[in-house]
């Protein structure tokens, strides 16, 4: 489904070069749920952004459905982010002046769908996420858990092949975090491919597979622990 | 582009207060410029109309007709060559109006008098006559004992006196005025014309126009008059240039404010724009959003500013909002401000469209 091959990303911080990703090889199959763990600064978010076509690597390549995404032009990669990969953020990153329904409809509008069609898709998505009554509310009027669910709805509205989540529960209370993880597991059970960055070892083990990054290098790639052992 | 316009529109609705400052500056600039321009055009229009009433700078009459005969309205039934008006329009640069006239001697209430057929847009006081209406020179009205509203016979037909013109102290006081087409029909001389009065745009001299028509010299006579030059034509042109310089300075101030507003807005919305890129907006869509937003802000300011400027101009001069001038000034203000909004935002938009979203997303 999505594959990183010898992915390297370096940049120059004041005074010294930094290697954010160091020849990372990672292959995520259709329907897999992969957690990416590691200490702060280990390159987890860089890997996620690189997988989503947002951060051009210094070397290496990302393959999505057989296509080399960094050989595509900017507009083609934007189209790919509209329809084939989607980002969920720790800070939700909802557009503050749009309603919940409009936030969810946003990728559909960007994909050129008409107002009515996008609104209908967003309405169905909010219904599924249990947020239909919040459709006309602005993000500031929602709880953090609801905001994150709107963020997930925004990703799902165009039916992406891969969902990329960067610390999706990092800003949530335990109950909301559990709700988001339950939603991810449900989506995964329906066949959604998910790559999730997390600090939380317990949440990481809820995925089917855990990979660990340290200093930009992938140092561990294993199946998650059995549920009882993880807890 | 549709998505960019939609986002810009939604943002403006939500952040009206913040964007209103830039709009207010544009409004102030447009109010000032539009108000000044409307008043200036009204004054220029009034001066031009007054000059036109004094007389045209150049007249074309049939060959052999002298200035004296023309002053006596004695054209002896001679006519200009057909199609001359088109030739004149092609030849004379800066021609504003070529007014065709037909002057024939006819009985008016039993008295032989020159009857002048004038076109509906004529520059003289007899403008606006309709079929069946006649205007009488002051001396002729006194001679036949007619007043406005009376009926008189002209060339055997009955006409209603629409007006008695004030005395001009010339042969025109003894003339009758009717619509050109009506006189041509009455005399059975379709399309016939024996005088073309040329009115020129400011800055175009009668000598230049006459020189441009030198090729017609064998077929017609030209009578040049300085009466139309009594007001210095160069003065309005000079004032217009000064006004335009002022508008440029005002536009530069507005552009600066719009550029600053676009820059501050884009800086504040870095994470939001990075998010848009992450969910599939192209750099072009993000850039278009910045431009459209700035255009909306400028256009809204222009509309408000024009209303204020027009109201102030109206208070200063009740004739300031003439139909012919208000529309072009409003369109110029709106399109100019919108173009300024676009131009001011383009550098910010390009930078926003090319910006790496990852740093902004990691900051959030």
Kindly state the percentage of residues in helix of chain B. 55-70%
The chain-level mean pLDDT of chain A equals: 89
Low-confidence stretches of chain A: none
Main β-sheet, spatial strand arrangement of chain A: 6-7-8-3-9-10
Largest sheet of chain A: 6 strands, mixed
Largest sheet data of chain B: 9 strands, mixed
Low-confidence stretches of chain B: none
Query: How many whole angstroms does the radius of gyration of chain B measure?
Result: 30 Å
Principal-axis shape of chain B equals: elongated
**Interface with most residues:** A-B, 33 and 28 residues
| Assembly status | heterodimer
End-to-end Cα distance of chain A: 30 Å
Distance separating the two termini of chain B: 26 Å
Shape of chain A: globular
One letter per element, helices H and strands E, the order of chain B comes to: HHEHHEEEHEEEHEHEHHHHH
List the strand order in the largest sheet of chain B: 5-6-4-7-3-2-8-1-9
In helices, the fraction of residues of chain A equals 25-40%
Describe the protein in words:
The complex is a heterodimer of chains A (231) and B (364). Chain A is α/β, with parallel strands linked by helices. Chain A has helices at 44-51, 74-83, 100-110, 115-128, 144-156, 174-189, 201-204, 227-230; strands at 2-13, 16-28, 33-37, 59-64, 67-68, 85-88, 162-166, 193-197, 209-214, 217-223. A six-stranded mixed beta sheet of chain A has the order 6-7-8-3-9-10, sandwiched between helices. Chain A has a four-stranded antiparallel beta sheet with strand order 2-1-4-5. In chain A, α3 (100-110) crosses α4 and α5 (144-156) packs parallel to α6. Chain A is globular, with a radius of gyration of 17 Å. Chain B is an alpha+beta fold. Chain B has twelve helices and nine strands. In chain B, strands 5-6-4-7-3-2-8-1-9 form a nine-stranded mixed beta sheet. Chain B is elongated, with a radius of gyration of 30 Å. In chain B, 42% of the residues are buried. The model of chain B has no long low-confidence stretch (mean pLDDT 85). Chains A and B meet through α1, α2 and α3 of A and α1, α9, α10 and α12 of B.
């Amino acid at each position: 489904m999505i594959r990183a091959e010898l992915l390297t990303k370096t940049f120059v911080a004041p005074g010294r070069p930094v290697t954010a990703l160091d020849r990372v090889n990672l292959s995520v199959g259709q329907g897999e749920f992969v957690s990416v763990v590691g200490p702060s600064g280990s390159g987890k978010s860089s890997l996620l952004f690189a997988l989503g076509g947002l951060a051009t690597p210094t070397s290496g390549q990302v393959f999505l459905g057989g296509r080399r995404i960094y050989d595509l032009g900017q507009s083609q990669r934007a189209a790919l982010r509209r329809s084939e990969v989607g980002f969920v953020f720790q800070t939700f990153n909802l557009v503050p002046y749009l309603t919940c329904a409009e936030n969810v409809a946003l990728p559909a509008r960007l994909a050129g769908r008409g107002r009515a069609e996008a609104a209908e898709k967003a309405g169905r998505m909010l219904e599924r996420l249990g947020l239909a009554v919040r459709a006309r509310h602005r993000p500031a009027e929602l709880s953090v858990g609801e905001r994150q669910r709107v963020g997930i709805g925004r990703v799902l509205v165009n039916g992406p092949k891969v969902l990329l989540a960067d610390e999706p529960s990092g800003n949530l209370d335990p109950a909301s975090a559990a709700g988001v993880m339950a939603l991810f597991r449900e989506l995964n059970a329906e066949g959604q491919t998910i790559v999730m960055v997390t600090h939380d070892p317990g949440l990481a083990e809820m995925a089917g597979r855990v990979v660990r990054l340290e200093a930009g290098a992938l140092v561990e790639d294993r199946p998650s622990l059995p549920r009882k052992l993880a807890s | 582009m549709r998505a960019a316009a939609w986002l810009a529109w939604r943002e403006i609705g939500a952040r009206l207060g913040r964007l209103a400052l830039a709009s207010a500056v544009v409004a102030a600039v447009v109010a000032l410029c539009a108000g000044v321009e409307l008043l200036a055009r009204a004054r220029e229009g009034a001066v031009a109309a007054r000059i036109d009433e004094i007389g045209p700078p150049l007249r074309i009459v049939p060959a052999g007709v002298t200035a004296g005969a023309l002053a006596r309205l004695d054209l002896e039934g001679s006519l200009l060559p057909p199609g001359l008006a088109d030739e004149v329009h092609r030849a004379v640069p800066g021609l504003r109006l070529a007014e065709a006239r037909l002057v024939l001697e006819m009985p008016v209430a039993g008295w032989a008098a020159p009857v002048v057929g004038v076109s509906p847009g004529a520059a003289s006081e007899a403008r606006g006559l309709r079929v069946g209406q006649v205007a009488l020179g002051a001396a002729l009205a006194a001679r036949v004992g007619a007043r406005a509203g009376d009926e008189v016979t002209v060339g055997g037909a009955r006409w209603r006196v629409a007006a008695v013109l004030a005395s001009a102290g010339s042969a025109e006081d003894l003339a009758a005025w009717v619509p050109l087409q009506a006189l041509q029909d009455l005399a059975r001389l379709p399309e016939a014309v024996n005088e073309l009065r040329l009115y020129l745009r400011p800055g175009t001299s009668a000598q230049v126009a006459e020189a441009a028509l030198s090729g017609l010299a064998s077929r017609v006579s030209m009578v040049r008059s300085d009466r139309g030059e009594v007001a210095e034509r160069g003065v309005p042109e000079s004032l217009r240039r000064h006004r335009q310089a002022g508008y440029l300075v005002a536009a530069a101030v507005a552009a600066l404010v719009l550029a600053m507003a676009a820059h501050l807005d884009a800086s504040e919305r870095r994470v939001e724009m990075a998010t848009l890129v992450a969910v599939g907006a192209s750099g072009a869509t993000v850039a278009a959003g910045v431009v459209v937003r700035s255009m909306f802000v400028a256009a809204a300011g222009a509309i408000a500013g024009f209303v204020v400027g027009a109201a102030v101009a109206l208070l200063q001069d009740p004739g300031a909002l003439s139909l012919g001038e208000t529309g072009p000034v409003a369109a110029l203000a709106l399109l100019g401000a919108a173009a300024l909004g676009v131009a001011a935002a383009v550098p910010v938009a390009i930078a926003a469209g090319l910006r790496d979203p990852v740093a902004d997303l990691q900051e959030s």
